[in-house]
Design goal:
The complex is a heterodimer of chains A (245) and B (197).
Chain A (H helix, E strand, L loop, with lengths): L2 H4 L3 H6 L6 H9 L5 H16 L10 H10 L3 H6 L2 H54 L4 E5 L8 E7 L3 E7 L8 E9 L5 E6 L7 E6 L7 E10 L12 E4 L1
Antiparallel strand pairs in A: 1-2, 2-3, 3-6, 4-5, 4-7, 7-8
Chain B lengths: L12 H12 L5 H21 L2 H18 L10 H20 L7 H7 L15 H13 L2 H13 L3 H8 L3 H24 L2
């Protein structure tokens, strides 16, 4: 077909309304350099373009200008706009990890504390059981001390020939720093024998068990002195507790 | 909404050429200037097609981003920036309409071809001018109702002639006659004088 024959199709083509085979025919003309159809279609496109101007005017929201400008705040900006998100996510994960680590350490520490306390309670319970067993044994001999002193400590000493010596005291303030209480078993007519070191509780009570067989018949006195914290081979101070058997 | 023809800033090819060159260089600041020049027209055109403020906003952004991304293929010396941008805007809106209505697009390739930058070379300077807008509106006003209606359906809704026939309940031949006559009348009315100042 000639351009003259296609002339009435230019606007249809520009509007996208031209059906085949007319469309293909015109496409072929437009591919030829210098073809008169090119100028004709260009005019038709101008006409079609100008129809856009007949749209009723509508005011665009003011924010749209900013949005459009922001579309390309650096083409690269569109790419790095995710970076802060990923950084925030990574930082968040790092914080969570650290928090979990700290929490885990705290938890482990708490569990260890409980285990330690439980262990102490078990030791204490075992010691109390031993003390009760020692006291309940009919072979045990009991001595009360401190009843005749104006400044107690007061309490009882149980001597069990098979199980050992048990001291129960009250009003026995904790030994000062660098000092400790030391028990002595003093045979009749003999020298004091060291029977172990102990410390009283903050409320002034003390329970000390010196295990081991004791010869009650030869035992004269159970005494307690205040000694250097490493203990002494012989008493270096006046006894605080004296329980004569 | 103001139901009056759009009044545009004077279409200055020299400024458009500068904008096009800066677009090709991907200078971000050019987007604001491009929007100031064509944003209102693009928004009005898109809104006329989709009739939805939110969608129109999104489509305007799509339009400008598409122009930004495809500026490399635009001939800054000979290309008509405004008509190209409006063709992109129209195609985005029509594509949206067809997607929203569940219809297959009449052809992505067809739309692509219709907005290819090379299709907007050597345009007259006043295609989007206020005077040209007035002339086109007058010419449309002189069409009979059926002719004007099919032009509007084709341009603002992107309907094919078959779709128009179905929509209007008219034989395809009748619709084709209305369309062909309408376009012929517009060409005659606007004529060489109007488009070749």
């Amino acid at each position: 077909m000639t351009c003259d024959e296609l002339r009435d199709d230019y606007e249809l083509y520009a509007m996208g309304l031209l059906d085949e085979p007319g469309r293909a025919e015109l496409d072929a003309h437009l591919r030829r350099e210098g073809d008169p159809c090119i100028a004709g279609v260009q005019k038709a496109r101008e006409l079609v373009s100008s129809i856009a101007t007949t749209a009723p005017e509508v005011h665009a929201p003011a924010r749209l200008r900013k949005k459009v400008a922001g579309l390309v705040v650096g083409d690269e900006g569109r790419r790095w706009s995710w970076a802060p998100v990923w950084i925030a996510v990574a930082a968040g994960l790092a914080l969570v990890t650290i928090w979990l680590g700290i929490s885990r350490r705290d938890l482990e520490r708490t569990i260890a504390d409980f285990e330690r306390q439980l262990q102490q309670k078990n030791v204490e319970l075992a010691r109390l059981n031993e003390a009760v067993a020692l006291m309940n044994d009919p072979a045990a001999r009991q001595v009360v001390f401190g009843t005749d002193t104006a400044q107690p400590p007061r309490g009882r000493v149980f001597v069990n020939p098979k199980q050992g010596v048990l001291l129960l005291a009250s009003n026995l303030p904790p030994a000062a720093a660098g000092k400790i209480y030391e028990m002595w078993l003093i045979p009749k007519g003999g020298k004091p024998v060291p029977a172990g070191l102990f410390q009283s509780e903050s409320d002034g009570t003390a329970l000390y068990l010196r295990k081991g067989a004791v010869d009650i018949a030869s035992m004269g006195v159970v005494a307690v002195t205040l000694e250097p914290e490493s203990g002494s081979a012989q008493p270096t101070t006046t006894p605080i507790i004296v329980a004569a058997l | 909404m103001i139901f009056l023809p759009l009044l545009f800033a004077v279409y200055i090819p020299e400024e458009d050429r500068s904008l096009a060159e800066r677009l090709k260089r991907h200078e971000p600041a050019v987007m604001t200037e491009l929007y100031d020049r064509y944003g209102k027209l693009a928004y009005s055109l898109i809104y006329r097609i989709v009739r939805d403020v939110g969608a129109a906003e999104d489509l305007v952004q799509e339009t400008f981003l598409r122009v930004w991304n495809r500026a490399q293929g635009f001939d800054a010396e000979r290309g008509a920036l405004g008509p190209w941008l409006l063709a992109v805007a129209r195609n985005r809106a029509i594509d949206y309409l067809r997607s929203a209505s569940g219809k297959m697009s009449r052809g992505a390739l067809e739309l692509e071809a219709a907005e290819h930058p090379s299709a907007f070379a050597n345009f007259e300077a006043d295609v989007l001018s206020q005077d040209q807008s007035r002339r086109v509106r007058s010419a449309l006003g002189r069409l009979n109702e059926n002719q004007r209606h099919v032009i509007e359906l084709a341009y603002f809704e992107g309907l094919s002639q078959s779709e128009m026939a179905e929509r209007l309940g008219q034989p395809l031949g009748t619709v084709k006659t209305w369309v062909r006559t309408a376009l012929k009348n517009l060409r005659a009315d606007l004529g060489e004088k109007a488009l070749s100042v």
